[in-house]
Write a structure and sequence with these properties.
Chain lengths: ~525, ~325
């Protein structure tokens, strides 16, 4: 009997301990980070943690993709836009006590840029650096003194500044990289408002407040990221109060969260697009009339209602409405099967035609149920006499084949990186992106669009760039290489007493201003 | 006997070589380029080529296998493609979670399963027999996904007795020494942590233990019933031995061998990682890790993981064979 009493007491003790203190926030998410070296990672779950440990020369405004100072308090650009000089803060140090200066910045970016840098060749390539085309933008970088950092560019490139706000351009402690070498990804050391404490793989990552932070120290003392793959279990943790926040909610929980006074829901149109690309190298998609007909044939609102439970916006432009330069003047093609049939007839295809519709085999952030969406589109097309056969491949094969242009029509999408319209329009629709393996899988080659996009890249004037991108959207609307389908909404939920968290269009998760109020 | 064990251990090596070759071939021919999967929508010709070189994917098949195998012989399984972590470290950090959970599940399954089996056999045809065998049938046929969620809903939500998920409370800090949290807690002398860890173990152990429990109960009942009909048991009864003595000492000793086989097999299966239980309880074990590795075509991780599981499976079976010999003199004296 005494034994039973002991067990019971032990249980009570254990139960009593579950309430986390008011300055600790547990954030549950679908999977663990892959690694915590900001220059190596490519997955959102790694960046969510890196966002709080590291900082960059410039960063995004709290709620928009506007670029603002961070580790650099100011910067100048030469008239030819080839020399960018950043003036660094002098009151910053890394979590391990190493002072932050221009040399540290040169180390952080130089290991990705200089081929002969001692830390250039490590397991895991610097994928984002290459992906954002930095090798072709930057010609040199230097640190003339402790507080000045200079980039020389090969050609004028306005989106370059937005790239610098991305995680891969973060300052990492040179001392820590030297010390841990290729294991730095599990000993992350930055200058951010939180410092790394512990990582138990697939179990939790613990960050603590950086008491030596150069800016305002965070209200939270401890931030814990806990991966739970099963969505229902994640939601239970939040409901029980053992977690205070979560993201990527299943649509079926939205109503429950809205009706639960203990919880709050945050939503924001995401910086993404899901689209249907028509391969213009293959007939009949070389005819603009056919492409416009298909644009009229697909009921986008029905897709939003049925497969996103309303958590998406029907798209009319390639870029989402949260992005600057979004052109709301573009009419979009309304759902009108009658008009679609008429356009097909005008194109000499009154009997319709047979084609293939390729669909991704895996859910993507911009398209959670690609197979069902493909079926709905198939049914819509059937109504105008277009008989589409759905084709699926294993994910890696799919990406490979569409980039080689083997498809006629294919579903795909994009999630923005740096918040610049160039990062959507140039990489997805410019004619240079139609070279195989292509990012432009409509194989849309417009000299007019190319001219506009190149001018926008080379301009330092924000107003001018804005006007050019608006023009670009009109050209794309007219030529209709895609059926832009949806912009999926990003979601997060928190306990009602959590305050100060803002969803960011880039998907960044910053906890620096988050506090938990006493209930 | 010693020769027998030695032979079994020597046989382990060609078995593992065969397994690693098989897994290598499977991963090599299955569609899906790991570099392409990793880069997703943003793959371009340059990054793809560079990543393939770094992963060694641009090498011919036999060189890739040679590299893997020579690494294996020197105890180096390489680094995971997906996480750039050493495979040995990945396994070392996750396997204890699986092992600890398996031990507890099998403890519950064996204890409850054997007791139920004995009870059912002794009270054959009575109400208790019927009830326990209905329970066992239900246990075998229950989808573990459903059972695990049901347990969470009942004992974590409606009756909030147990935690929803995880290996220990987020507020607990334990120095990771062995990654067996019960052991780490004991080593640290932290009894609050120990009770917290045990408290977190309970529901997943029950969920994972249900099927083995049912199998063990049915096997115990069946083999005990068979033995209870034997002449030597009748003799034992006739000698006037106590009921407990006849059943546990005379009958059960012989009836236990088939049960032991089942226990060993189930133990081996569970050690391979239980993807579903690990997923629902957010248990950081090898099952889920291996599952993700397969999805990412992280062939180095899959190789390492499968080799580990195969080795364990073979070793557990060897252990079971040794135990038979210990239990059953006929086996012992054969060689």
């Amino acid at each position: 009997m005494n034994y039973l009493k002991f067990v019971f007491a032990a249980f009570l003790l254990a139960c009593g301990g579950t309430q986390t203190a008011n300055d600790t926030l547990v954030f549950v998410r679908g999977s663990d980070s892959v690694g915590l070296d900001p220059a190596l990672e490519t997955d959102g779950e790694s960046f969510k943690v890196c966002d709080n440990i590291y900082e960059t020369l410039v960063t995004y405004d709290e709620e928009t993709t506007e670029v603002i100072p961070q580790l650099a308090h100011a910067w100048d650009v030469s008239d030819d836009m080839l020399t960018w000089t950043f003036h660094l803060r002098t009151d910053v140090q890394f979590h391990d006590g190493t002072p932050f200066n221009a040399q540290a910045m040169l180390f952080s970016l130089g290991r990705q840029f200089f081929k002969d840098h001692p830390h250039h060749d490590i397991p895991g390539a610097y994928k984002y650096w290459k992906d954002m085309d930095m090798d072709n933008i930057v010609s040199d970088m230097s640190a003339p003194n402790d507080s000045t950092f200079v980039f020389q560019l090969k050609r004028a490139n306005a989106p370059f500044l937005s790239n610098l706000a991305m995680n891969f351009c973060a300052a990492v402690s040179p001392t820590a990289v030297e010390k841990y070498g290729s294991d730095f990804f599990k000993h992350p050391t930055g200058t951010g408002p939180f410092r790394f404490v512990e990582w138990r793989k697939d179990e939790r990552i613990i960050l603590d407040r950086n008491e030596q932070y150069w800016g305002k120290t965070t209200p939270l003392k401890r931030l814990i990221f806990k991966p739970i793959q099963e969505a229902s279990v994640r939601f239970l943790e939040l409901k029980q109060g053992t977690a205070q926040g979560m993201d990527n909610l299943n649509p079926e929980y939205i109503e429950q969260i809205r009706n639960n006074p203990d919880l709050q829901l945050l939503t924001q149109p995401g910086m993404n697009v899901g689209y249907l690309a028509m391969n213009m190298d293959k007939p009949p998609f070389d005819k603009p009339l056919v492409r416009r007909a298909l644009n009229h044939a697909i009921n986008k609102q029905a897709l939003v209602d049925n497969f996103y439970q309303g958590l998406a916006l029907a798209a009319k432009n390639p870029i989402p409405p949260t992005m600057w330069s979004y052109n709301d003047q573009v009419q979009g093609y309304e759902y009108d099967p009658q008009r679609a049939r008429q356009l097909l007839a005008e194109a000499g295809l009154s009997d319709g035609f047979e084609t293939e519709l390729w669909a991704m085999p895996v859910p993507r952030p911009y398209m959670p149920q690609p197979d069902k969406i493909a079926q709905a589109i198939q049914a819509d097309l059937e109504k105008i006499g277009v008989r589409a056969k759905i084709v699926q491949w294993e994910w890696g094969t799919y990406l490979d084949k569409v980039s080689q242009g083997e498809h006629t029509m294919a579903l795909l999408g994009w999630t923005g990186d740096n918040g610049d319209p160039d990062n959507f329009l140039y990489v997805l629709l410019d004619k240079t992106a139609a070279e195989k393996p292509a990012g432009n899988i409509a194989f849309y080659r417009s000299d007019q669009l190319h001219d506009v996009l190149v001018r926008a890249r080379a301009s330092a004037q924000r107003d001018e760039r804005d006007a050019l991108y608006r023009q670009a959207q009109e050209i794309i609307f007219r030529d209709a290489p895609w059926v832009p389908l949806v912009h999926a909404t990003q979601t997060a939920a928190f306990r009602h007493n959590v305050e100060g968290f803002k969803l960011h269009p880039t998907g960044n998760k910053w906890f620096r201003n988050v506090r938990i109020n006493t209930p | 006997m010693h020769l027998y064990i030695l032979k079994r251990i020597v046989l382990l090596f060609p078995t593992l070589l065969g397994i690693s070759l098989l897994v290598f071939l499977m991963l090599y021919f299955v569609p899906g380029d790991p570099a392409q999967i990793m880069l997703g929508e943003r793959a371009n010709a340059e990054t793809l080529a560079e990543l393939r070189t770094e992963m060694g994917l641009d090498q011919p098949f036999y060189i890739q296998f040679y590299r893997f195998f020579s690494g294996l012989l020197s105890g180096d399984l390489g680094r995971s493609i997906r996480t750039h972590e050493k495979i040995t470290v990945e396994i070392f950090q996750r396997f204890p979670a699986t092992f600890e959970l398996t031990l507890f599940s099998m403890f519950i399954a064996t204890f409850v399963g054997i007791s139920t089996g004995i009870l059912a056999a002794v009270r054959r045809g009575k109400f208790i027999d019927l009830l326990s065998m209905i329970g066992a049938t239900a246990g075998i046929s229950m989808p573990i996904f459903w059972l695990a969620l049901l347990l969470v809903l009942m004992f974590s939500v409606y009756l909030p007795i147990f935690p929803v998920s995880g290996r220990m409370g987020t507020h607990i800090y334990l120095e990771p020494v062995t990654y067996f949290y019960t052991l780490d807690a004991v080593l640290a002398g932290d009894w609050a942590a120990l009770s917290n860890v045990l408290w977190h173990l309970t529901l997943p152990a029950i969920a994972l233990g249900t099927i083995p429990m049912a199998v063990i109960a049915r096997m115990t009942r069946a083999s005990l019933l068979e033995v209870l009909g034997e002449d030597y048991v009748r003799t034992a009864w006739a000698k006037g031995l106590a009921r407990r003595w006849v059943i546990l000492r005379h009958a059960m000793r012989n009836a236990f061998i088939p049960t032991l086989t089942v226990i060993a097999l189930e133990f081996g299966y569970l050690l391979g990682g239980a993807v579903i239980t690990e997923t629902i309880f957010a248990w950081p074990g090898v099952g889920r890790w291996l599952f993700l590795a397969v999805q990412a075509r992280d062939f180095r991780a899959v190789q390492g993981g499968v080799l580990l599981i195969a080795t364990i499976f073979v070793l557990v079976n060897l252990l079971a064979d040794i135990l038979y010999a210990w239990l059953d003199p006929r086996i012992r004296y054969e060689k």
